[in-house]
Design a protein that fits this description.
With 294 residues, this protein is an alpha/beta fold. 40% of the residues lie in helices and 19% in strands. Strands 1, 2, 3, 4, 5, 6, 7, 8, 9 and 10 form a ten-stranded mixed sheet that branches. Strand 6 and strand 7 form a beta hairpin.
Amino acid sequence: MLNNEPKIGLVTVLYNSIEVLEDFFQSLAKQSYKNFILYVIDNSPNDDVINEAMRLSNKLNINSIFINNNANLGVAKGNNQGIQESLKNDCDYVLLLNNDIEFGENTLKDLVEYTVTNDESIIVPKIHYHNTNKIWTAGGHISKLKGTTPHRGDLEVDIGQYENIEEINYAPTCFMLLDKKVFEKVGLMDEKYFVYYDDSDFLYRSNKLGFKIVYFPKAVVGHKVSVSTGGSESLFFIYYVTRNRIYFIRKNLPFIYKLISLPYFFLTRMVKYKSYNQEQRKTLIKAIKDSFKM
């Protein structure tokens, strides 16, 4: 046990999906680690979701602060708002977490204890698909050759193949605990991304400054993989993933990797283009054009 429990700022961004909130708040209420403040940033088009979050927070006695944007300002902007509030309120660590997740009562305690005891800067758990023994991510890596950030173990049945605590260079910010010094040195999320690749960009910059991510499989989180953006064939997904992947490559990767990753990307998009309908094709072309204006 820790002699002094550091103060944690938990940051979650809402966008519709009211149905996931009950389980999320129940997970927070049962945590054995209590020294945290929840910062709820609402990007939803109406007040239904934030009102439900407020109701659950009061019902379950969760120490919460709410910010209602009254518009979808993007995940990157929402996370930044919560991070800034956490730092302003002297939180020692910030936990970025989705609200379409469930986790056990000692998850936060285990992560914090390992982080503090070993003086780590960034730590992530293993994440399962909700209510299954299938892995969503056991960490991941940044591929400079492709300009992607693939998850390790995705869709594999968990038979203990990823049980070692180890350093990785990427993980999604679905559940990520960060020392405040990371933000002091790296800065905040790049809000140009709006959604998708904002975490890739942030962690690429963190890696360059010497921050490693610890994969800590003792902690396991269940993720109700979000469908709020309409899936991988939706116009929303096609636009932002296309635009942001090109932006990520152009902004961050060394020239030699740009020469490999950009042609690779365009070749794969040509294949996709043939399978798309007219609206999807228009969206793809617009995304490519827009990426070079960022």
